[in-house]
Design a protein that fits this description.
The protein is globular and about 45 Å long. Helix 4 packs parallel to helix 5 and helix 5 packs parallel to helix 6. A ten-stranded mixed sheet has the order 4-3-2-5-6-1-7-8-9-10, sandwiched between helices. The protein contains six helices and ten strands. It is of the alpha/beta class and about 220 residues long.
Amino acid sequence: MLSDNVTVLVVGDPSSGTLEFCCYMATTYLRSGERVVFVESDSELEQLDQQFELFGLDVPSLERSHHLAIVDCHEDTKGLTKDKRILRVANMANLEDIVEKVTEGIVRVGGSPVRVIFDSLTPLYKYHDASKMERFFRALSSQVKVSGRLTAVVHSGLMDERHIDRLGEISEGILEMRVDGYFHRYVRLNKFKGLEIAPRWVPFEMDLEDESQGTVLGWKKS
């Protein structure tokens, strides 16, 4: 179990299933009674809702009970929601607004301890240069770690590897994801502050169980 007050960077190419992975993490936290702020910039809310539904989550109920807050900063304005429970960032180019909405989400779910999941940082690089993004990520990380843990996704293949490395230097942990030609998924922990890490790829799968149980993330030892 990862410790609190840390930032973990999840690195994977677009086909590795980062949205599914983030939704699974959120589901795991919520079923354990923890509070989650989920920031979505890479997919429309409809996709996010569908993924949560596959995992058996009653999102509206969790929002009403202040266990879950969703921050929507996807750039497709035609997907704007009228749901007042959704914290909407109107302009992805406004990094200050993103931080403010995340902070509002943390307050909404009751503050510390909280798990903030950010899927993903990649689209923001279309609007901001690397140095500005590094300052933003450092500020967001510092803000969230006061209240709990930040997990943020970036996509290899869509970003300059040097930019990913800089975000990794800011983070306490790095988790990498990949999928092979047979659509088998693998993860490896490449770094975690205070631990000696021998990075190696470990197969994992998400198995659907019955509707009451949702899904289970299975880790296989090789």
